[in-house]
């Protein structure tokens, strides 16, 4: 993984308000054990990631946005290439931080992703 590697994030439709993605899309929940699920963009296109994700009837995505590995490094967020549940899967690890810091870091990641814009949307499918 390089600093420019994009980490592809599925955006649930409920995290899009007035056409903008909320920072909630980049904030892990306790059930996620403070790890945010992403896909390794050097190994998988945004469209392929979206298609695989939405092939599961239980999974919904308005589209894909991304942060880079360097965006995460700037926030002291390690990226783990865990390869589960599929080979391209990675996790952004927020576990070293308290709730307030996690919220701030999620806002900064959302801003970085918003600058890049949508890499793939459901409308393009």
Give the key terms.
3 helices; alpha+beta; two-stranded antiparallel ribbon; 125 residues
Plain-language structure description:
It is globular and about 35 Å long. It is built from three helices and eight strands. The chain has 125 residues and is of the alpha+beta class. The relative contact order is 0.26. The strands form two sheets. The protein has a six-stranded antiparallel sheet, sandwiched between helices. A two-stranded antiparallel sheet has the order 2-3. The protein has helices spanning 46-54, 69-74, 99-116; strands at residues 6-11, 16-17, 20-21, 35-40, 63-68, 79-80, 89-93, 120-121.
Shape: globular
As a percent range, the share of strand residues is: 15-25%
Order of helix and strand elements from N to C terminus: EEEEHEHEEHE
Largest sheet composition: 6 strands, antiparallel
Number of DSSP strand runs? 8
Structural class: alpha+beta
Can you count the helices? 3
Trace the largest sheet across and list its strands: 6-7-4-1-5-8
The low-confidence runs, each spanning 5 or more residues with pLDDT under 50, are none
């Amino acid at each position: 993984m390089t600093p420019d590697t994009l980490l592809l994030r599925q955006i649930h439709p409920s995290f899009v308000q007035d056409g903008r993605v909320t920072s909630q899309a980049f904030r892990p929940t306790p059930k996620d054990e403070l790890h945010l699920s992403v896909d390794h963009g050097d190994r998988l296109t945004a469209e392929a990631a979206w298609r695989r994700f939405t092939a599961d009837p239980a999974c919904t995505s308005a589209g894909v946005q991304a942060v880079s590995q360097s965006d995460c490094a700037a926030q002291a967020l390690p990226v783990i290439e865990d390869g589960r549940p599929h080979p391209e899967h990675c996790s952004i690890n927020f576990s070293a931080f308290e709730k307030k810091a996690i919220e701030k870091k999620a806002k900064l990641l959302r801003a970085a992703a918003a600058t890049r814009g949508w890499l793939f949307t459901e409308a393009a499918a």
